[in-house]
Design brief:
The structure is a homodimer of 202-residue chains.
Chain A lengths: L8 H16 L6 H7 L14 H20 L7 H18 L1 H8 L10 H21 L5 H27 L11 H10 L1 H11 L1
The first copy, chain A, binds a DNA duplex (30 and 30 nucleotides) through helix 2.
DNA sequence: GTATTATGTTAGCAGTGTCAACATTAAAAT
DNA sequence: ATTTTAATGTTGACACTGCTAACATAATAC
């Protein structure tokens, strides 16, 4: 009588999946448990996602949209400050939403072009970084800007990975020499300073 | 009669798993199929690996050892050339062994400290980069060297990710503006030049 | 040579992605 | 307004997974 049809299942599944994904990691996310959590039969999600990868793509898209929002916050007039601030937000997003970040940049969805909206959201993030850097850079040559944006993105992406490892590692290992942790920890303790130097040095 | 005991199962499983992992991605690797491929019962691997993560750790360790070998090849006297060559080998390893690379740097084994030999192998790679850079760098300050090594590593790691996306993407998208692919492709076409500039600019 | 330990096997549990067949309802076509 | 159709839900099933317990056999230590 009341609710054979759910009404808003698709969006609820995506939201719920995003939560589980962030809490437990995307490998722990199962379509069946997802269905259970939404009080719906085990195969109901298949009316909205043909495969699990389709669901992953949706979560990843939401992730890129959130990342875009995060790095678009700064409203400063100083183009360098904006770039530094965006970089910081990027690192924050990657470390605070690390499981989702994994899904976004890992191999769960190997080919973004299969999912146009995901492809678009991901590229928007890149385009935004390009815009910020173009505004900051003295050298306005397009090829130069593009290459430097790759540099920035690659660098930030790598840092996210390292900062995450830092969180997992036992505290005493942070002081262990011959290990990247000490250096990363130093960076982490003065992120602003580090990022300012980084941007300036590009 | 002949072979109730296999004799060398553990190593064969690791080798076989490495192959499957590289061919199909580590998510496709199953202990059962692995056992089948070695003509052994479904649960035999559990005598050698308590959990799947233990097996992953072993594959990852092998990966780090191979990465170490790869970036240690150059025998040039010129410290800059050595660094450039090692960087190139790093990128090559990451793109040619991309599925294994995923396993090594992803979340399949979240905490390396649980696996001492893996931890050691991974750190050896980092130490090697440190050594190469320390030999090259004019500035011998330890803190400086450590931070720059993080920079190098992060940068290379990020590039691996981008280069891999490039391989997946349809050819025509490479020429699409507002997309990182064109820039990455340019870099890829002259990797040596790019890396030389990169190292010089550090 | 016997006891112990390492390494293999079989049977089975609970959970998974996915599909086919069927049920119900909302939306569109008439 | 009624009927058709498409969307969205459910049940049941298949083949697969990680993993455990109970048992079998072989290598090793004494």
């Amino acid at each position: 009588m009341s609710s054979y049809h759910h009404g808003n299942l698709k969006q609820e599944l995506i939201s719920c999946a995003s939560k589980i994904c962030e809490r437990d990691g995307y490998t722990k996310l199962s379509i069946r448990s997802l269905a259970k959590e939404s009080n719906v039969s085990q195969t109901a999600p298949y009316r909205h996602f043909k495969t699990k990868e389709d669901l992953y793509a949706e979560i990843a898209r939401e992730g890129f949209d959130n990342l875009h929002k995060a790095i678009s916050k700064s409203k400063s007039q100083n183009t360098q400050d904006v770039l530094v601030s965006a970089s910081k937000e990027y690192l924050k997003f990657g470390t605070k939403n690390s499981n989702t970040y994994d899904l976004m940049f890992g191999t769960a969805v190997p080919d973004f072009t299969k999912y146009p909206s995901l492809f678009k959201s991901a590229n928007s993030v890149y385009r935004h970084i390009t815009t910020l850097f173009a505004a900051y850079s003295k050298n306005k040559d397009s090829k130069f800007i593009q290459e430097k944006c790759i540099d920035i993105w690659a660098h930030l992406h790598g840092l996210v990975g390292l900062l995450r490892k830092l969180e997992v590692v036992p505290a005493k290992l942070v002081e262990m020499p011959d290990t990247p942790f000490m250096a990363v920890n130093k960076i982490n303790e003065d992120l602003d300073g580090y990022l300012k130097r980084f941007i300036k040095n590009i």
